[in-house]
Amino acid sequence: LRSPAEIRAIGRAGRILAELHEAIEPRVVPGATTAELDRFAEDFIRSHDGAEPAFKGLYGFPATLCTSINEEVVHGIPSGRRRLANGDIVSVDAGVRLDGWFADAARTFAAGVVDDATTTLLQVTQEALAAGIEQARAGNHMGDIGHAIQQVAEAAGFGVVRDLVGHGIGREFHEEPQVPNYGKPGRGLRLQAGLVIAIEPMINAGGIGIRTLPDRWTVVSADGSRSAHFEQTVAVTEGAPLVLTG
C-alpha cells in the first residue's frame, strides 16, 4: 500500500504517459510504421527530466512501446516493416519509470477510417475499463472490478481475455496483486486505500482464446478476431478512484 506522497510520485510518471498518448494519437495514420511510433515515444519520454521507458529491456523486450495491430492482443514488437493501413487499429502500450516509480497505460487507436464493428469494439472496451475503474474503491473486492469489466464486454457479445491480467505497480513494473478482467462480485482481495493497480481489459471481437506467435512476444486472438486494449494506472483511495495516467 502506498502513501499519498508515493501515489503522487507514481502520478508524475503517469502524467507523462497521458501526455504521450495525446501526442502520439495524430501520428497513428495510414502509412506510419510502428518503428516510427516507437522512436517518437522514446524521444518523448526521455525529453522529461529523469524519465525512462519502462518497457525497453524489461524481460528482454526490445522497444519502448508494445504496438499490437488488429488481431494482436498485446506485446507486439515495433518494426519498420509494419506499416499501418487504412482501417487498422493499433494498441499503443507504454510504461514510464521516474524517480524509481513506475506507471503503465495503453490506448487503442484507429488508423484512418474503421468499420462500425471496430468502432463498437473500441467504445465497449473503453466503457469496460471505466466500469472497472469505478469499482476500484476501498471496501470493494478485486472480483468487483473484473465482474464490471466482464459484464460490459459480454453484453456487447465480445470475449474477455482471461489468460492475461492487470497487475499491481509501483517500485516494480509488475507487482502483486493480479487484476483479472472477469470475476464474481464480492470475491477476491479486499481493496484498501493506497493500493495502486494497472487495470487493463483486453477484449476480443470473437472468442476469448489467445496464442503467442513464434517471436515469443506477440499475443494474438486464437480465432483471428480483432482485439482492443485500454489501460490506466489507478490508485484506490478513501474516496473516488484516482486515475494516475488520465
At a glance:
The chain is of the alpha+beta class and 246 residues long. The chain has helices spanning 4-24, 34-46, 116-134, 142-155; strands at residues 52-53, 65-69, 72-74, 89-98, 101-110, 159-160, 166-168, 175-179, 196-199, 202-204, 210-212, 219-221, 227-229, 232-235, 242-243. Strand 14 (232-235) and strand 15 (242-243) form a beta hairpin.
Mean pLDDT over the residues? 98
Q: Percent helix among the residues? A: 25-40%
Residue windows where pLDDT falls under 50 for at least 5 positions: none
Tell the overall outline: globular
Q: Quote the beta fraction.
A: 25-35%
Q: Summarize the helix and strand pattern as letters.
A: HHEEEEEHHEEEEEEEEEE
Distance between the termini: 21 Å
> How many DSSP H or I helices?
4
Find the count of extended strands (DSSP E, 2+ residues).
15
Major sheet: 5 strands, antiparallel
- Radius of gyration (CA) equals 17 Å
Describe the structure.
The protein is 27% helix and 25% strand. It is an alpha+beta fold and 246 residues long. Strands 8-7-9-14-15 form a 5-stranded antiparallel beta sheet. Strands 1, 2, 4 and 5 form a 4-stranded antiparallel beta sheet that branches. Helix 1 packs across helix 2 and helix 3 runs antiparallel to helix 4. The chain is globular and about 45 Å long. It starts with a helix and ends with a strand. The model has no long low-confidence stretch (mean pLDDT 98).
Attribute tags:
alpha+beta; five-stranded antiparallel sheet; four-stranded antiparallel sheet; 25% strand
How is the topology of this model organized?
Blueprint: H1 4-24, H2 34-46, E1 52-53, E2 65-69, E3 72-74, E4 89-98, E5 101-110, H3 116-134, H4 142-155, E6 159-160, E7 166-168, E8 175-179, E9 196-199, E10 202-204, E11 210-212, E12 219-221, E13 227-229, E14 232-235, E15 242-243
Antiparallel strand pairs: 1-4, 2-4, 3-12, 4-5, 6-10, 7-8, 7-9, 9-14, 10-13, 11-12, 14-15
